[in-house]
Amino acid sequence: MKKxxxxxxxxxxxxxxxAQPKPAAAPPPPPKEEKSVLPLNVxxxxxxxxxxxxxxxxxQRIPYKSTAGTLPVWDSEGKTIAGLFYTYYERTDxxxxxxxxxxxxxxxxxxxASVWMHIAYTGPRxxxxxxxxxxxxxxxxxxxxxSILDIADIVYVDPVNTGYSRIVGKDVQPTTFxxxxxxxxxxxxxxxxxxxxxxxxxSPKYLIGESYGTTRVSGLALELQNSQWMYFNGVILVSPTxxxxxxxxxxxxxxxxxxxxxxxxYHKALPPDLQSKDLTAxxxxxxTFTMNELLPAIAKGNSLPGNERDAIIAKFARYSGIAExxxxxxxxxxxxxxxxxxxxxxxxxxVGRLDSRYIGIDKQDIGDGPDYNAELTSWLHSFTPAINIYxxxxxxxxxxxxxNMFGSVYPWDRSGDRTGENLRQAMAANPxxxxxxxxxxxxxxxxxxxxxxxxxxxxxxxxxxxxxVWKGYRSGHMMYLRKDDLATGNNDIRDFILKSVPKQGxxxxx
Length: 510
Description:
The chain is α/β, with parallel strands linked by helices. The protein has helices at 115-118, 180-197, 212-227, 249-254, 257-266, 272-275, 279-300, 306-320, 324-329, 336-342, 374-394, 419-429, 448-458, 483-500, and strands at residues 3-4, 47-57, 60-74, 80-91, 102-106, 125-127, 141-143, 153-158, 166-167, 205-210, 234-238, 350-351, 359-360, 434-440, 468-473. β2 (47-57) and β3 form a beta hairpin. The longest helix has 22 residues, at 279-300.
């Protein structure tokens, strides 16, 4: 159900009690039709369209309102330099908003809109796809029975040049926004504006980011504490990046293997004894080999005795589904790009980067990498029509701006990425702050084992360990596209939020 709310402005005029009655005047001419100040193909940095809806979550009918609109970004002198598009969902039968959690959601790229988690994961509406995440027609939107809107309000934010968000003014430099540190700085200011405008300072607050969005929210956790004096209860990292945590050489090469093993298991490319085991029963064996044998072996280089090298190569081949000859020729350092091409080369297909369950077809079977990302092409196929239909049709936000699924944000300044350390500092300074990581086993871009490695290195002493949790899912980068993981992933977020909201009167102290 949807109902569009309209805003009426009443004007009243004062009059003098001593005024004498005047002869009736002729009626005024009809007002001229007013035209919009800005054409629909130019961003209005401050706008809002409110609609009312209902959704059934876990068998309960939830009333809510949606605000689709823009809020400005200002420079240090108060000049508007950008308008950010957002979609804000509030449950309307809640009387105590102070105790109602608020989730602030970002996707990644950099340069990606918030569309992915918005209409496929946590929001009240979800796009029409099959149970494994593949496109189906007609392109429609339906209720999301697993949304977290029952326990938290949610705002989805599109950074500059994504979605409908744009720079305002020809003299504004893109470098103001396009870089690890600048991105975090201006978004922290914008969040302050949003929270203040919507009276959410008292609410328990959460950041959730996917892919590069995890870099963003990890940095925001500390920036919001240090520069906006805003403290959060939780950060949720969906398919996290490396978060600025250094890994190269032997570490980088070795950490790929568990992902290779998961993908090979899915495509039935492992030896029968490994293939007969369940995925989560098989992977610990590979993880142990990776840390205890493979990593030291790669580090030893040509000092590794020949017989030991042969044994390591044989095990690598056994766990990866890649022939021993190829492993030997690569010196135990097989890139993910080559793996996506090589694993099923004998079958004439490639596997996807962001989700290796997806299959691609290249022009030639030779080569060092796939011609295209089979999974991303599939996702754009279903997401792009859905978000355009939804925003204009159901949320009534009318604009001729193109909704940028991916917008130009280059060159992106990646220097100064210490976001993993930023998140650690934020946790250390804020005893309320908890972290949950969600990873898909078949994600080759931000793989699950590197996500675990992040957690180990962020907290090497184990002092924050009881406030960090990792969850794995049998899908890829966007694990929620698989029907079973949509339900499980949202339940995990729901549980994380409910457990991390402090009990009444519980102080933030060690």
